[in-house]
Amino acid sequence: MPVRVFTAALSGVEAFPVEVEVDLAFGLPGTTIVGLPDSTVRESRERIRAAIKNSGYEYPDRRITINLSPADVKKEGAGFDLPMAVGLLSATGVLPPEAVEGHLFLGELALDGRLKATRGVLPVALAAGRFGFETLVVPRENGSEAALAPGIRVLAVEHLAQLVEYFHGRAEIPSVSPPSPSTYSYSEDLSDIVGQETARRALEIAAAGGHNLLLVGPPGAGKTMLARRLPTILPEMSWEEALETTRIYSVAGLLSPENPLVLSRPFRSPHHTISEVGLIGGGSQLRPGEISLAHHGVLFLDELPEFNRRALEALREPLEEGRVTITRATGSVTFPARFLLVCAMNPCRCGYYGDPRRPCRCTPQEIRRYRSRLSGPLLDRIDLQLEVPAVDHRELAAERRGEPSEVVRRRVIRARKRQEERYGIPGKTNAGLTVREVQEWCRPDREGRQLLEKAGDKLGLSARAYHRILRVARTIADLEEEERISVRHISEAIQYRSLDRALP
After folding, report:
1. Whether residue 207 sits in one domain with residue 96
2. Cα 166 vs. chain centroid, distance in angstroms?
3. Could you tell me the maximum CA-CA distance found in the chain, to the nearest angstrom?
């Protein structure tokens, strides 16, 4: 009679249960794995054989069939090693089958029987309770990660033989306690920025309302410095946000065994040579891309026009939906991707258009060609677009420090609390308002409406840009703790649409 052992597989950042059935029969010795295994799972036959033998147990000299159910879903990764080995040991009588009931197994095996860390443990641990399991057995290196999930007992095992001794009652494996969260401090601070008052203000508005930001300026103006300090003025992540972000990093295999919980807001800065798959996600095994790794954090794209055009256009839907669905012949998965996009670019190819100190060598046609690499639909989705001029050397010599990040963060937190109270949804910001919500909550006064209509005619604003100006104005009013949007708020919001103005 086949022996049943349970494990789990991943679909995006969600886990689903997998039943491992092991059957021993008479016939020509050999091991067959069925149930749509990928090459990694098929290769596990040799790892399991060596691990069992090197742990001091006999590998059955029988015809072995291992079925991974559901059989119509592809199984990927080395995490199936441990459950298949446990199934074989149960089928041969080394382990009592009743002892493994109620346990979920996940882990990769080394040839000497050691358990090696595997990716995707946290999504499995979070789902194990829903599957009806009381205990999760994982490699020792994944113990702290799995213990982040509430309501599940975690056994962190170092060797296959240790697990066998445990089930026979001859060894003790203590349950892993959840790691205690530690506070995270940033090494950078907004007070490091000299001058750039307008850019600092735009950074504060972006943080307060969750607005996407584009910085345009010559080389050395401080665009990257500004972007890297944006996480320091964002509110700290809630426990739910931290767990959701950690789950993505677990699937990507990027967690540290010592500090598995992602506490700080992610800041991802991919190089402009990144591929569409690397940015959006996908590949042969459907892994999360940079936009998902930046979930609840900041995605910084420096030298924006140099990025692959297809990769940039693929950002449009995730920016609107807060998630990305990737469909391939092997299946379809959805990854969370709610991030704050910050971009930086030079005003022209040489980088000095509009700089009073260095002449620009580009013709108007070259400037238009350079900026045309960015499509209108993508720019429409960036709420704040402003020019960042070079800092005068006299300001640098004066060493005047601006407000520290802690002071600005307090204003940002107050503005976000106003938004949560207004909309009644935790974490909802002005940038995420629908068109109907904009019409309800972002009504300017009469003078503000007239100014916005004039700006729309002069700049040729699209309907999306029109609504985004209203969202930014709503955030400016929230920072000033005013419920009514006035002409002053509309005027400032319009100033952050620099790329809507015509080039010479």
Report:
1. no
2. 37
3. 88
Which residues form the domain of 155? Answer: 3-167
Residue 184 lies in a domain: no
Phi, psi for 483 (deg, rounded to 5): -85, -30
The tokens of 300 are what?
Answer: 């910084």
Q: Going residue by residue through the chain (504 aa), what tens digit of pLDDT does each one get?
A: 789 999 999 998 999 999 999 999 988 889 999 999 999 999 999 999 999 999 999 999 999 999 999 998 889 989 999 999 999 999 999 998 888 999 999 999 999 999 999 999 999 999 998 999 999 999 999 999 999 999 899 999 999 999 999 999 888 998 888 877 666 677 888 988 887 889 999 999 999 999 999 999 999 888 999 999 999 999 999 999 999 999 999 999 999 888 888 989 999 999 999 999 999 998 877 899 999 999 999 999 999 999 999 999 999 999 999 999 988 776 788 999 999 999 999 999 998 888 888 888 999 899 889 988 888 888 888 999 999 988 776 666 566 677 899 999 999 999 999 999 999 998 899 999 999 999 999 999 999 999 988 888 887 788 888 899 999 999 999 999 999 999 999 999 999 987 765 444
Question: In Å, what is the CA distance from 112 to each residue of 47, 95, 329?
Answer: 9, 19, 37
Q: Read off the CATH number of the domain in which 40 is found.
A: 3.30.230.10
Helices 160-167, 81-91: inter-axial angle, 10-degree rounding: 50
Query: 139 and 83 in one domain?
Result: yes
Give the span between the Cα atoms of 33 and 27, in whole angstroms. Answer: 16
This prediction has a pTM of: 0.91
| DSSP secondary structure, 346-373, as one string | -SSSSS-TT-SSS-----HHHHHHHHTT
Domain boundary among 167, 198, 216: 167
Total domains, the chain: 2
426 falls within a domain: yes
If asked whether residues 78 and 195 sit together in one domain, one would say: no
210 in the same domain as 75 = no
Q: Where are the alpha helices (DSSP H) in 373-445?
A: 376-380, 393-398, 405-423, 435-441
